[in-house]
Amino acid sequence: MNALGHLSAKEIQLKTMSRILGGQDVIAIGPEGSGKTTTYVLATLMRLKTGGGDAPRALILVPTKEKVLEVLETFKLLNRNATFRMVGIHADEPIDKQVEDLTDGVDIVVAIPSRARAIYLKLGLNTNKIQVMVVDDAADMVKKGFQLPINELARSIQKCQHLVFTEVMHERLNHMIEGFMHLPATIEVEELSETSVETYQQLIYQVPNFRTKLNLLNLLLSDTEVFDKVVVFVNTRLTAQTLSRDLFDGKAEDIFVYKPLFFDEAGYESLDVFKVHDKARVLIIANENFEEEKLTDIPFVIHFEFPEDKMVYINRVMKTD
Fold first, then answer.
1. For domain 210-317, which CATH number applies: 1.25.40.180, 3.40.50.300, 3.90.1010.10, 3.50.50.60?
2. Could you say which DSSP state residue 273 is in?
3. What is the torsion angle, in degrees rounded to the nearest 10, for the CA atoms of residue 11, residue 13, residue 15 and residue 20?
4. Separation of alpha carbons 12 and 24, rounded Å
């Protein structure tokens, strides 16, 4: 969820996720922005667990090409498993190429119903191993007249879980889905999208161990013109002391520790004092003994270790008035 800028699960996710992961058919009703797309993308990834199959195991039906691309992008943002293979099917690509993409091997298919049906009739879409079928923007599907292809595709699947997401529920929609939904749980929420949160620019460096992190930090901090005022966060006071001795082999005179372990070591008891001291360039702070203060006027904040409480990090990167 943090990858999409959300600080916590939305109401629709809290109310549906356990049912979906338990295998129950679900009808989820909520306004635009309530988190419907994120819900079924996360649920699909968690249900399938890993990729690499020879036939699709999830079929997600959406009404437009734009929605196909949006859903694929959401999968890319939330997926942490490189084995998953995903294909988008819409009317703006040659059907033969789409058949070829499907036969090359795919785990998740995101498609417009009419094009998915056409490929199925050409024997290009194997539905024998589908475990999850999603119908998103279901009310819009009815408006566009997709009832026939949706039902044909549903009937082609021997047994799977069905998930329907819609902004509204009405009789025509109920008539479309009643033939394939099995004892569904109907869940309705009224939550609108949460206010977007502005954050400071962030960069992540993937490094394998302490020594590599230390070498990278040495390299960054060696540019004294750019990194002229820096706070480095670690988790413990002991790590702070160790890092201060290891950076530049302990020979740098502008690196200090916040509230050092030993009284005879150079350090600062206050972040505000560090900010105004020209000769102090780097302050190493342990999360365990730092009472959160505003990091304004500090151009660079480095998390040498990620805080054990993720909310500590989130609060630091959020821009507040």
1. 3.40.50.300
2. H
3. 170
4. 15
Q: Is residue 220 a contact partner of residue 272, using CB atoms and an 8 Å limit?
A: no
Chunked in runs of 10, what are the mean pLDDT values of the chain (321 residues)?
A: 58 91 95 91 92 91 96 91 93 92 92 96 94 97 96 94 96 95 93 62 89 95 95 95 92 93 84 92 94 88 91 80 57
Enumerate residues 6+ apart whose C-beta is below 8 A from 2: 310, 314
Helices (H) and strands (E) in the chain, counts: 12, 12
Sorted by sequence, the CB contacts under 8 Å of residue 89 that are 6+ apart come out as 68, 98, 102, 109, 110, 111, 112, 115, 116, 119
pTM over the 0.70 mark: no
- The correct CATH number of 2-188 out of 3.40.190.10, 3.40.50.300, 3.10.50.40, 3.30.365.10 is 3.40.50.300
What is the rounded CA–CA span in Å between residue 165 and residue 63? 12
